[in-house]
Every structure is written in structure tokens, then in C-alpha cells.
Amino acid sequence: MIVDEKGWLEAYRSNKSASWIKAILTNDEEAYSDSFLDWMNIKKKCEDSNLFLKKLSLQYRSHKVDIDIDGCDGIYLIRSVMGQIGGDTSQFYTVGKIVGDKVYKQMWVLPELVMDKEYEDTLENCFEEAIIYDKTQKNRQK
To answer: Strand 2-3 and strand 74-83: pairing?
Structure first.
């Protein structure tokens, strides 16, 4: 479910255990989502309207993490898991800042949003459907 700023508080109260994705688009529209699947809807809106993200943050209860997206060519966000045989499985939001052909990834443990890993990767190791590229007029002029 994607809600705007007014609907967010009501949605938050009905699902306090969620880790929220909060995005502000280049047209100043705000989108709040408690589901990774809505990232695809945000991507579609950006592609259809030549928009990008001005700001991206993750939030669990009162803990808010602002993601550095300045100067990037695209943003990658995926829900991921990591586990080991006989051990616990941890869930993550993996967020990447795309600059050229490099992706600077951060893995945030869900739901509490503690950064577990930070590393550099390549575009080949990313799911294309989880990338929002900056196709705004500003970026096309570069």
C-alpha cells in the first residue's frame, strides 16, 4: 500500500511492526510504503512521469534512516534474506546508490534498521526490476 503523508500516520498506527520506505519524488510528491512490492509502483510512476527521488529513507517506529542518494545515476532497493544451515535467517532491505557501473550497497536488518554490511558491487549483480534510474531532464543534459 502506498499512501501520501496524510494517510501515513493512519497506516502506521495500523501496522506499527512494519519497516517503512519513504520516498520524496522530484515533483515533491511523497510516497510511504510498508511493503517492498510498492517499490515497483514507485518505479513505474517515476518512469511514466520522468521523475526521480529527491529523498529516500527507511523507518521503523521512531528510528528513521536517511539514505544518501546525492549525485547518483539510479537507486536500487530490494528485500533480501541471509541465513545459514542450522542458524537463524535475517531479513534485510538492501539499498544501492548507482554511480556509473558501480553500486554502493548497504544492507539494513529488518525490522529494526541496523546496518549490517556495506560494500561495492556491479550492476550485473542487481535485479534490473528493482532499479529506478534518474531519467529526469536534469540528468539527460549531463
So the answer is: unpaired
